[in-house]
Design brief:
It is a single chain. The chain has 112 residues and is an all-alpha fold. 88% of the residues lie in helices and 0% in strands. It contains four helices and no strands. The radius of gyration is 18 Å and the shape is elongated. The termini are far apart. The model has no long low-confidence stretch (mean pLDDT 90).
Length: 112
């Protein structure tokens, strides 16, 4: 029973994150088609505005969650030795946390 709940939760995370990322990309394409930034300062001001900063951060969080679920499932399916599986999952976790921290740093330090 526990595996079914975990499987459903992972499935929901993957589907919800995919829908959010799709909507965000469509928004970006529409925005840059209608009103492309004319300079680096204009683009920087746009990306660092509070609303866009938040939805961008959520986009990258969704991207990392989506990637985590997919890569975790592949690792669980194809890495058979338990010790190696734990090691590979730990590497994946460290990499995902580093990328999330790097993204947060870029989006937050741009405000200062």
């Amino acid at each position: 029973m526990r595996k079914a709940v975990t499987g459903l939760r992972a499935w929901l995370v993957q589907r919800i994150s995919a829908v959010y990322m799709l909507l965000f990309i469509v928004y970006l394409l529409a925005h840059f088609t209608v009103a492309p930034p004319r300079s680096h300062l204009e683009w920087r001001g746009w990306i660092l505005s509070p609303g866009i900063s938040i939805v961008s951060f959520v986009f990258f969080a969704a991207l990392l969650a989506h990637a985590w679920v997919g890569l975790r499932d592949v690792i669980m399916d194809y890495v058979n030795r338990p010790g190696m599986r734990v090691f590979v999952l730990a590497l994946l976790t460290g990499g995902m946390l580093a990328m999330g921290g790097w993204t947060a740093r870029i989006l937050l330090l741009g405000h200062y």
